[in-house]
C-alpha cells in the first residue's frame, strides 16, 4: 500500500499546525519545515479548509491554523477523506474491468485488510501524534 502525496502533505500540514498551537502559520513556513512544494501545499491546504480541519486567514498576517482541537481529528478520518478518490485496487473502482472479478476471492481479503488498516488509524488522533513529541515539535516549530 502506498499513500498519495496529498495524504502525506495533509498530515504534515496538520502536524505542523498542532505543533504550533495558537499560532497562525504561513504556507511558506510549513513548506520549508516539511520539505514540500508550496504549490502542492496550497491545494492540500484548500482541501483541508473545505473539509473543516483548517481555518484560513486572508490578508497581511494571514495564514492557517487548526479549526478543531487536535484530539478531535482522527487520523483514519483524514486518510479516508484524502484516499477516497483513489481505489486501493482496480476491483474497488466503479469501472472495474478485471476479468477475474466474478470468481476472485482476493477482493474480499483486500477489503478486510484495508478496513483493518483504517481501524488502526481510527484509534489515533492528531494529538496522539504530536503531544509530548519534542523531536517533532523541534522539526515543525515556526519562529
Unreliable residue runs: none
Tally of separate helices: 7
Assign the CATH class. Answer: Mainly Alpha
For the record, the CATH architecture stands as Orthogonal Bundle
In what range is the share of β-strand residues? 5-15%
Q: How is the main sheet built? A: 2 strands, antiparallel
- Spell the H/E element sequence: HHHEEHHHH
CATH topology term: Arc Repressor Mutant, subunit A
Strand order of the largest sheet: 1-2
Number of strands: 2
Q: What's the end-to-end separation, in Å?
A: 36 Å
Task: Write the CATH homologous superfamily.
Answer: Winged helix-like DNA-binding domain superfamily/Winged helix DNA-binding domain
Taking all residues together, what is the mean pLDDT? 90
Percent of residues in helices comes to 40-55%
Total tally of structural domains: 1
Structural class: mainly alpha
Radius of gyration over all CA atoms, rounded: 17 Å
Q: What would your notes on this structure say?
A:
Helices cover 52% and strands 6% of the residues. It is mainly alpha-helical. The chain has a single domain, classed as Winged helix-like DNA-binding domain superfamily/Winged helix DNA-binding domain (Arc Repressor Mutant, subunit A, Orthogonal Bundle), CATH 1.10.10.10. The longest helix is centred in the last third of the chain and has 17 residues, at 106-122.
Characteristics:
two-stranded antiparallel sheet, single chain, mainly alpha, 143 residues
Short overview:
The chain has 143 residues and is mainly alpha-helical. The chain has helices at 5-19, 27-34, 38-50, 75-83, 106-122, 126-130, 134-140, and strands spanning 54-57, 63-66. It has a single domain (5-140), classed as Orthogonal Bundle (Arc Repressor Mutant, subunit A).
Amino acid at each position: 500500500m502506498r499513500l498519495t502525496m496529498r495524504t502525506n502533505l495533509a498530515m504534515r500540514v496538520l502536524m505542523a499546525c498542532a505543533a504550533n498551537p495558537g499560532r497562525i502559520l504561513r504556507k511558506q513556513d510549513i513548506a520549508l519545515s516539511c520539505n514540500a512544494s508550496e504549490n502542492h501545499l496550497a491545494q492540500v491546504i484548500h482541501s483541508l479548509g473545505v473539509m473543516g480541519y483548517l481555518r484560513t486567514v486572508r490578508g497581511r498576517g494571514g495564514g492557517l491554523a487548526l479549526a478543531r482541537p487536535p484530539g478531535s481529528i482522527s487520523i483514519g478520518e483524514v486518510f479516508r477523506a484524502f484516499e477516497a478518490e483513489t481505489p486501493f485496487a482496480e476491483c474497488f473502482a466503479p469501472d472495474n474491468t478485471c476479468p477475474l472479478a466474478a470468481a476472485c476471492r482476493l477482493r474480499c481479503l483486500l477489503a478486510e485488510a484495508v478496513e483493518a488498516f483504517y481501524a488502526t488509524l481510527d484509534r489515533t488522533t492528531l494529538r496522539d501524534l504530536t503531544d509530548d513529541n519534542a523531536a517533532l515539535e523541534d522539526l515543525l516549530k515556526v519562529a
